[in-house]
Structures are given as structure tokens and as C-alpha cells.
Automatic annotation (TrEMBL):
InterPro entries: ATPase_NBD, ROK. One of its GO terms (molecular function) is kinase activity. This is Glucokinase. Belongs to the ROK (NagC/XylR) family. The keyword Glycosyltransferase does not apply. Transmembrane segments: none annotated. Keywords: Kinase, Transferase.
């Protein structure tokens, strides 16, 4: 019976889930999406996680051996102990300081599973590792996710960079001061929304704005162009200091990269790295999480 690892990409809006076998094959053709319920009570959030986890374990139990579970969470988060430290970020406020590792161990124990590896890692780090290991000729890469917040991870010489280059104490950029606040407030859906409203554009959501822009709506395209200036300005100092070979964007807003790439690149001068968007942010995140699980187990990658 083949071994498999259950993998969850936990976002502020959605939880995406799939499973990978020991030979790196996805068990499901399409990732399964659930609403995150991240603005609900702790009881609702925890019950939601429990229901999702046990549903998938039961789904695969007759055909595959359950060998581990991994969670890609946004920060701030105590990844070693499995404790959420998110507060003031509009997501998962109700489970602040809750030890998720102990809860999950209890749920698994009730199902007869003991000593199952449980891994927590930063979602942007997982995304970065998944993208980085897909490209053999990249030495230094910057990996940025644009969604409810701005996730980031820098990799050099096969190692995640945790200090220097203007990064915070956790090796990230989300809380670095920028304009009238911090990067997270501007390089995110809230930043895009603010630009739209400042231009008197009737903002409903990012997808609708992008669809209108791709359809030729001049004002919608101007919103994204201005957003590109903001992204370019926000990342410019990190580009200059880190000198990456590539910058890869993931997250929902990255699907609109063609709408803001040109104005963004202008902020970086005449010489800049390769810029691309992830073809599948979730797949990259799950593969990166899988990479971390195997590394922690000491298995060959």
C-alpha cells in the first residue's frame, strides 16, 4: 500500500487541499477548495479543520497508508509548536494562541493514528520552495504572494533566506514600513481596493476588476497600472539589495500580472530579473510543503 501525505494550503479566504504519494503523485486531479471561515469563532474554525482532515483521511484509508499531514499557514505563526499568532490581520483572530498541533494530535488519536508527523510551515516559504525546485538554473529567487496580504520568501543557494536584505526578523517583508503603513496593507487586495476607490471605481472584488480590465475598461486598467507602481516601489529596495535571478508571483492577484507588470518594472530601472507568475500557486505550495515534510523525516527528495 502506497504512503501518502495530506497537505493543506490555509489561506485567509480559502483552504486548498490535496494529497501527494511517496512518488510525488497528486491523489486528486483537482485541488479541493473550502471556505476558510477565518472570520468565525474558534469553535467554528477548529470544527471546520477537524471535519476537513478526517473526511480526507477516511476517503483514502482503504487504498493508501496515511504517513503525515502538513499545513501551509500565513504568518505570524509559531510553526514549530503549531500555534497561530495572527491578530489584527482580519483572519484567524479567534484561534490566536491556540495550539493546533495538540488539537490535531487529539483528533488523529481518536481515529487510531499515533505519532503521525504533523508539519506547519509558512505558506509563502512553501510556495517559494515549490517554485524554486521546479527550476534547475536558478540560484537566487524572490517569491511573492499577493492576496489578502503580501507573503514573501527569498531563496539563495537552496536555502531560505531568513535575515539581511531589509527583511524582518522572520525573513519576511509583510510588516516592513511602506508609504502610509506597511507593505501588507498596500501589496494586497486591500491595497488594490484602495486604489480603485481613490479613482472612484466601483470596486466589488479583484476578479471582477481584472475581468473588466482585460475587456478593455480604461479606468480598470488604470487601477492596475497604479497598483503596479505600488508593487514596484514596494519591492524595489529588496530587488536592489538581494539581486535575484527571478521574481515569481503567486496568489489570486498574480493572475492579473499582465495588467500591472509594465508599470511595476519601470520602478526597477533598466536592469531587472526575470519576472513570471506561478502557473498553479496551490500546487507549488503543496509541493513545497511536501519537500519540507520529507526533509524533516530525513527521506531523500
Amino acid at each position: 500500500m502506497k504512503h501518502y501525505y495530506l497537505l493543506l494550503d490555509v489561506g485567509g479566504t480559502e483552504i486548498k487541499i490535496n494529497a501527494l504519494t511517496q512518488d510525488k503523485a497528486l491523489l486528486l486531479e483537482h485541488h479541493v477548495h473550502f471556505p476558510s471561515l477565518s472570520d468565525q469563532s474558534s469553535e467554528v474554525i477548529l470544527d471546520h479543520f477537524r471535519s476537513i482532515i478526517l473526511d480526507f483521511i477516511h476517503r483514502f484509508k482503504h487504498d493508501y497508508h496515511f504517513s503525515g499531514i502538513g499545513f501551509a499557514f500565513p504568518g505570524p505563526f509559531d510553526y514549530l509548536n503549531g500555534v497561530s499568532l495572527m491578530t489584527g490581520l482580519r483572519k484567524y483572530e479567534a484561534i490566536y494562541n491556540v495550539n493546533l498541533r495538540r488539537r490535531i494530535e487529539s483528533w488523529l488519536f481518536d481515529e487510531g493514528y499515533i505519532n503521525i508527523p504533523i508539519i506547519f510551515e509558512n505558506d509563502a516559504t512553501c510556495f517559494a520552495l515549490g517554485e524554486y525546485h521546479q527550476t534547475s538554473d536558478i540560484n537566487r529567487g524572490m517569491y511573492i504572494t499577493l492576496g489578502t496580504g503580501c507573503g514573501s520568501s527569498f531563496i539563495a543557494d537552496n536555502q531560505v533566506v531568513t535575515s539581511g536584505f531589509g527583511l524582518n526578523s522572520a525573513g519576511m517583508i509583510f510588516d516592513i514600513p511602506f508609504r502610509t503603513g506597511i507593505i501588507d496593507e498596500h501589496l494586497s487586495i486591500n491595497g488594490l481596493k484602495k486604489i480603485a476607490l481613490d479613482k472612484n471605481y466601483p470596486f466589488t472584488n479583484g476578479k471582477a476588476l481584472a475581468n473588466n480590465a482585460f475587456s478593455g475598461d480604461t479606468l480598470a486598467r488604470d487601477v492596475f497600472s497604479t497598483f503596479g507602481i505600488c508593487v514596484g516601489e514596494g519591492l524595489a529596495s529588496f530587488i536592489a539589495e538581494f539581486q535575484p535571478d527571478e521574481v515569481v508571483f503567486g496568489g489570486q492577484i498574480s493572475q492579473s500580472l499582465d495588467l500591472f507588470k509594465h508599470s511595476m518594472l519601470k520602478e526597477w530601472g533598466t536592469t531587472y530579473p526575470v519576472v513570471r507568475r506561478s502557473l498553479d500557486t496551490t500546487a507549488a505550495t503543496l509541493y513545497g510543503l511536501y519537500h519540507i515534510i520529507l526533509k524533516n523525516k530525513g527521506d531523500s527528495l
